[in-house]
Amino acid sequence: MNFRYQTYILLAAITLFASSCYKKFDADSYKPALSIGGYTAASEIAPGNLVAYWGFNGDLTDSVSNTSCDNHGTSFTTGIKGSALKGADKAYALFTPGTSITGLKAFTISLWVNNPQNTNGIVELLSLSNTKSFWGNIDIFFENGSTDTKAVLKMHVASSHGEAWLGNYDVQNVWGRWTSFALSYNGVDSFKVYVNGLRIATQVVTGGGPLQFVSPGKMVFGTSQFQTVPSLTSEATAQDWASYLTGGLDEVRIYNKALEEADVSALVKLEGRGK
């Protein structure tokens, strides 16, 4: 073996050894971290004001209070992030709220839903019950009158000061796909309604002031307070014009303040990206 050939072999060995000491170049590692509205994850948005959060990732636990819902026939399905609560006919979940919810003076509620068209009556997504009234203290539901391309969104909030009805809002192309809804109240006089992070309505009420819920009871996911067995209110039992969520419900968050519009938008965008 001549000297030149030995030199080539030695240089090749040195090159192989040196290259084995370095990690393979990864272009993704040089990408800047995702930032939407100054946040990289939904959990960074107003964490000190988050009073309840259900991710429904295989369980029905509120991760803030570490308290679980009572399950009445629900299961789980693929969600917008991880898994989601899966409803069914006559199925729902009940949660016993603490004072961080029953004592809310202002709020933002956000959630995602993926449901087929409601053809058998209204479908309530979430309710904070009122044990002595037909309607709850908070109601978010799909009203009757939908079409195969349109949902009719309606919301209701009651307080010792009076009631606010919000809607009917025609929301296009939501059946069978994940859609985000949010409702906020600023504790003074203003409600805002959002669809997929965009404000679709503002409603100012007179004589509003801080909320004071009347006879608050359990929270319901997947139907109305009068559709449970037994009914959660002494004022009504099951109605033939009301039905049940048969699709998915995910990422339910409750804050004790009205989030800024930019934060609602950022929250939806981050959740939609699995963050």
Q: Topology, pairings included?
A:
Blueprint: H1 3-20, E1 50-54, E2 61-62, E3 67-68, E4 70-72, E5 75-78, E6 83-86, E7 92-95, H2 99-102, E8 107-114, E9 123-130, E10 138-142, E11 150-159, E12 162-172, E13 179-185, E14 190-195, E15 198-204, E16 216-221, E17 248-255, H3 261-272
Antiparallel strand pairs: 1-17, 2-3, 4-7, 5-6, 6-17, 7-16, 8-13, 8-17, 9-10, 9-16, 10-11, 11-12, 13-14, 14-15
Primary descriptors:
mainly beta; Jelly Rolls; eight-stranded antiparallel β-sheet; 12% helix
CATH architecture: Sandwich
Euclidean distance between termini CA atoms: 61 Å
CATH C-level class: Mainly Beta
Helix content: 10-25%
Count every beta strand, where a strand is a DSSP E run of 2 or more residues.
17
Number of domains: 1
List low-pLDDT spans.
none
For the biggest sheet, the summary is: 8 strands, antiparallel
Helix-strand category: mainly beta
Percent of sequence in beta strands: 35-45%
How many distinct helices? 3
Mean pLDDT: 92
Radius of gyration: 25 Å
CA-based shape:
globular
Order of helices and strands: HEEEEEEEHEEEEEEEEEEH
Please give a structural write-up:
This protein is mostly beta strands. The chain has one domain (39-272): Jelly Rolls (Sandwich), CATH 2.60.120.200. The chain contains three helices and 17 strands. It has helices spanning 3-20, 99-102, 261-272, and strands spanning 50-54, 61-62, 67-68, 70-72, 75-78, 83-86, 92-95, 107-114, 123-130, 138-142, 150-159, 162-172, 179-185, 190-195, 198-204, 216-221, 248-255. Strands 1, 5, 6, 8, 13, 14, 15 and 17 form an eight-stranded antiparallel beta sheet that branches. The relative contact order is 0.22.
